[in-house]
Amino acid sequence: MLLHLQTWSEVEAYLRRSTGIIMPIGSTEQHGPNGLIGTDAICAEVVGRSLGERVQALVAPTIAVGMAQHHLAFAGSMTLRPSTLIAVVRDMVASLAKHGFRRFYFVNGHGGNVATVTAAFSEIYAEASLGPGSNSPGIRCRLRNWWESEAVKRLSRETFGNAEGSHATPSEVSLTWHAHPEAVRHMKMEPEIAPMGEFADAADYRRAFPDGRIGSNPDLASPEMGARLLEATVGDLARDYADWMSRG
Amino acid sequence: MLLHLQTWSEVEAYLRRSTGIIMPIGSTEQHGPNGLIGTDAICAEVVGRSLGERVQALVAPTIAVGMAQHHLAFAGSMTLRPSTLIAVVRDMVASLAKHGFRRFYFVNGHGGNVATVTAAFSEIYAEASLGPGSNSPGIRCRLRNWWESEAVKRLSRETFGNAEGSHATPSEVSLTWHAHPEAVRHMKMEPEIAPMGEFADAADYRRAFPDGRIGSNPDLASPEMGARLLEATVGDLARDYADWMSRG
Amino acid sequence: MLLHLQTWSEVEAYLRRSTGIIMPIGSTEQHGPNGLIGTDAICAEVVGRSLGERVQALVAPTIAVGMAQHHLAFAGSMTLRPSTLIAVVRDMVASLAKHGFRRFYFVNGHGGNVATVTAAFSEIYAEASLGPGSNSPGIRCRLRNWWESEAVKRLSRETFGNAEGSHATPSEVSLTWHAHPEAVRHMKMEPEIAPMGEFADAADYRRAFPDGRIGSNPDLASPEMGARLLEATVGDLARDYADWMSRG
Amino acid sequence: MLLHLQTWSEVEAYLRRSTGIIMPIGSTEQHGPNGLIGTDAICAEVVGRSLGERVQALVAPTIAVGMAQHHLAFAGSMTLRPSTLIAVVRDMVASLAKHGFRRFYFVNGHGGNVATVTAAFSEIYAEASLGPGSNSPGIRCRLRNWWESEAVKRLSRETFGNAEGSHATPSEVSLTWHAHPEAVRHMKMEPEIAPMGEFADAADYRRAFPDGRIGSNPDLASPEMGARLLEATVGDLARDYADWMSRG
Amino acid sequence: MLLHLQTWSEVEAYLRRSTGIIMPIGSTEQHGPNGLIGTDAICAEVVGRSLGERVQALVAPTIAVGMAQHHLAFAGSMTLRPSTLIAVVRDMVASLAKHGFRRFYFVNGHGGNVATVTAAFSEIYAEASLGPGSNSPGIRCRLRNWWESEAVKRLSRETFGNAEGSHATPSEVSLTWHAHPEAVRHMKMEPEIAPMGEFADAADYRRAFPDGRIGSNPDLASPEMGARLLEATVGDLARDYADWMSRG
Amino acid sequence: MLLHLQTWSEVEAYLRRSTGIIMPIGSTEQHGPNGLIGTDAICAEVVGRSLGERVQALVAPTIAVGMAQHHLAFAGSMTLRPSTLIAVVRDMVASLAKHGFRRFYFVNGHGGNVATVTAAFSEIYAEASLGPGSNSPGIRCRLRNWWESEAVKRLSRETFGNAEGSHATPSEVSLTWHAHPEAVRHMKMEPEIAPMGEFADAADYRRAFPDGRIGSNPDLASPEMGARLLEATVGDLARDYADWMSRG
């Protein structure tokens, strides 16, 4: 159910039965010693697409570069400034709203996107509120982080305990290895579990977390666990999506 | 310790002993049948100033209008678009950074500001990361919501239980009544406890919450409780501020 | 009559009798050896609020940080870029226009704001002129500098003569001392009357006016004079506001 | 001495003896029943170029479209939004500053430009103040309205008295007729002297001033008077320019 | 050689041998009766990735939504405004430049992107030219349209002749069918060859080209031809990339 | 038929017979050892005005500063950033559209403008497509480069052969000499024909083309040739304009 693989008349047909669309959004940034730079985009995409199959909803192209300025001290990391990402989300939603889409369900793969994407929703709503009358009444946007599904949190806790951490986690690495088995790279972490803590800008981040991980041991990851996490989150998200779409 | 009540040479003297400054940020928006439109700005200001006294830190002028597009269907509510608020935070921080301030401690009075102010911090950091070398190395910004102090949450829970809700709460109304005793307005709420739920844009908010409250009974508020909440949050924030400033 | 101290239903009631609102705008910037950094915001706020009482009009929250880039070489001074301040004024007016406000009476405390706020009015009007039809027909904005009231100019001239100058004037210092008696700080000025002249950017300003004053001797200020100046300007502005509101 | 008619190596040679440049800025907007839409651009250009000859300074291309939103209810009027004009001025100054120009002398033909161009200067200065160190230290911008030269005001007062008004004045029409004798169009005005007054947006302007004039009788214009006004303003501006350039 | 499938230390290693990176950019827009909405993104991605393998260069994540406002009258089409796309390209390049990348080779799948991406390059260069000294000296950007390789043009001409057209061409459809064999959808076109012509905005486009095609008969496409076209363009682009990277 | 030399009521009369307007756009940038910095603005203006006479269409004021960042390493060159130029084009078109103009025929004098002006058209169309319904239905913009008229290309090829080159060409220099005979400056070029090649930013351009020319020998120019080129391009453009205006 990928928008990319439809013709325009197929999208017209879809719109006669649903105005909802799934919008995967990830990031392109370092994920520790053995995690892929595309981890967050890969996770958002694989979850978003599986969810689309499950609920028979269209899935828009993945926003692969998100807000990741705090990772810029590690090679390969990319960011959009928050103001740029707000404009991207606004234009993508406005384009689809023109065709009749009304419910935009963002499946997010990166914690650093949450603030900016939430601000983008407000920017969209504010244009309607402050402007000359809403042109697309009833637009609703929702953001869901795949790793905050209850089933995922339970599974992560049981499997990885306090080695889950909050960046370059074994859970997200597992999910990317499930999606890209050729990317499995086991590697002894030193220290085994990375430090936790706060950070300000990119230079500060690198000082605090020299190999990029926060609080995690991604060497515990496995493709099998990735498959289970995917199933867990898609189940939860499918219920959430169906519930949301069913409301007036 | 208000910046507004200093001379420029007094600020120079302050900077020789500290590079920290407290930045209160609130909002101007409806707060239910008996809550003041200025509730969030009043709370941020009174907490920020009390904190400034406690930790002997300068306090910048309060940002009184925040991101409140979802309240625009109620008369008197004002918002800055997220993109505008980002620019405001960026310029205020850049101005003060020019003088040598490096630690910006935002005391927030409004949940709706969190995403945008967090995005603003990233915009500031991204300018340094992406630009021609940081002009103000070591800028750090922190956002703290006064109502999320542990002591406040405990007190609110014990006193108001499930009537606290999440907008036009008896806690924030109490705090404004403590600051403005002339504003005390008791009023029977109907229903006693407002509904909970989600919302998208301003029209949707008003449909879901017709008198503006979410999940709360603000008639339980009292000036006395406001005084206790103020003491509670300032105690927690003072420890947090001191701890943050003491780090390298 | 502060917007901040109203409930939303009180604002609805107000709008049934008037569509006018007073918008105080000041600045946060150095005001010479003994003047407060908040001078311009304090003056705008105290004048705006007194005017609101006099004419029974609502008063919006004060814009405390204005356009003051030329003061940035003195510690504690803050500025919004003109483009940021334009966005702030635009969003505040648009928010209030949504509720039915139509006449925006800006009470200004800072000469450096005049150009940018005037440009902001044009930006607002241009959006209506160039866009898809005005959403808020009849919006009118007016800017008044409190110190340019005829009564104020007469009083300043009689009392301070050529020691009034144009920045850190005894008049504005008097007004802040009336509002904040605890801030009275007498101090021998050297030279007694500061130099006059032009300036370009902040560095140029500091070169030309090393202690921040332009052409003034603020040591002549007194709280009593502040009270008289307040009465003088409020009288003039009240007539101007009433006249403006009475026009078709 | 038009920049347009130089080669790049001639500009290099000029920069070895002066870092000053004249920047004419006008507007494209209605000028009453017989005034040209290009009046303000023509005036700025003819004055700027004559001044350039007089003081042997380079003259940049005229900014022909300025800030004229209030004239948009009359056919042919054009405006840049203030935010656009600020960007134009900023980019033009930045381009020339790269080559070594440091003093930018704007000769203005339109009152409506004053606020926005003044704000643009502050935007330029603020980028230097707030950014990573000035890249072009010593940039100074000055704005002069040709019609506010003392000699011009004297001449206008003596010749046109209270028929000068403030828009579509006989003085500016005279100057355009001197520059474009083929454009002389005498026409009986009705009323002879247009009304004075205030205005808000473009619709309001047209209501108040139905034929576009404010307070003037442009039928009193003559090419001869245009020649005298040109001589008068160029004399005053030449002294002002020389004085400004001679300062440290 | 996908950036997404590297770790950050692998990118560091890559940068020791090359500063070049391939940037695929496509579009998400209607492609006629049987063409996929993702045609241009698919083409840019498959070409960019094959090229990356051939020349052993890293490939950044594909920009999947480009500038396609003229297709917005067909369901499913998405666009970024030119100003948004400029910001996206600027931020992506700036992020990678921070790590040491200097040569950005954009492989483009959509004619509608050319103007905006070219403008984005100038925006990037202008920031360096106008700002306080280049932070990333030597940044060079190049844009290549895969379908304008000589070998591709020859092959298209020989195979499809005047049925190639300029939108929803049999060449691009062939390439997508090669990449997605499951998407092959033969369909009789009516008329067989679509009309040619010009267009302005989206409504005008749909009036002129009712089924979305311009001048083409995409039913002539085949996966086999897609494979040949891919080989043809990658051969040409590989030579061009190598030549470009070898220059000083 | 210059807009500048009309009154507003004459423009009203014009709009009753035509909604088309000619928009000359040039540039202010180095043109080699003997070419004028204003070459592109002069060419666009003289061609645009001659075309206006020929087809009896109004001609807007010339945009004299375009997108020329790549020339900024040569003294006197000026640029607008692409984002600024997009805003300028957008505001000028929106202003005229308000009066009823619908067809905007840009006569371009500078290759470096093409991408940005084309992007500006898309920005204009996108505002209509994405916004709350078009406020000016039927706006159409067209860009024509005067030197790409068939007649001009033939004449240039016959006369200058491979000495035409692509910047500071004998053709454009001829046209400026025709318009400004006082500017004729013959000068032996060294080398006779400048090198061809590519360039990235301004520094790179100067390295590759040390005297500013690309592939040309402008010493072959003559005023007579300028007159013939003008006649050639105006003939072609007049047919193109008439044809375009005649379409539905």
Name the descriptors:
248 residues, Rossmann fold, 4-stranded parallel beta sheet, homohexamer, 8% strand, alpha/beta
3D structure, described in words:
Six copies of one chain form a homohexamer. By secondary structure, the first copy, chain A, is of the alpha/beta class. The first copy, chain A, has one domain: Rossmann fold (3-Layer(aba) Sandwich), CATH 3.40.50. Chain A is 46% helix and 8% strand. Chain A is built from eight helices and four strands. The first copy, chain A, has a four-stranded parallel β-sheet with strand order 2-1-3-4, sandwiched between helices. The first copy, chain A, is globular. Chain A starts with 7 loop residues before the first helix and ends with a helix. The model of chain A has no long low-confidence stretch (mean pLDDT 96). Chains in contact: A-B, A-C, A-E, A-F, B-C, B-D, B-E, C-D, C-F, D-E, D-F, E-F.
